[in-house]
Amino acid sequence: MKVEEFKEYYCEHYYNDSNITLCNVTGHQRPELFPTVTMVSELIFYVALALGVAGNVPSIFVWLRIRFATENSSAVYLAALAINDLICLVFKSLYITLSVQGVRCANDWFCYCVQYIMMSASVLESLLVLGFSTDRLISISHPFEV
Fold first, then answer.
1. Sign of CA dihedral 88, 93, 98, 99
2. Where are the alpha helices (DSSP H) in 66-142?
3. How far apart are CA 89 and CA 54, in angstroms?
4. Above pLDDT 90, what percent of the chain?
5. pTM of the model
């Protein structure tokens, strides 16, 4: 495929003004150039979604039991991590569904909210893992002071 055909295929608006290419990638079409790669990546995502939801929902209920949450600070981190992971999975699947359906997200507040929540959950997940690791480090290095 030539470069010009590639740009016309993927860009909703293509402008070539003094060698500057502006390309609107929001609301992009479903790529059919590599259907096998697209199909395999979607299959992997949906398997991860099913396993993630099936694993996170029971994990939330187990870690939020009164006995675990009051006695163990790590249980609170793990419950928060499971809730955050579930939110991330749900909003990522919503975002992918909107993209595959061809919904235009140029100036739509709903798409911005979905992207904001999805990205915030991704950042928060790393911070929760950092907090959990710090909590474990303090618990191990100072066992009788905690």
1. positive
2. 66-71, 73-101, 109-141
3. 11
4. 25
5. 0.68
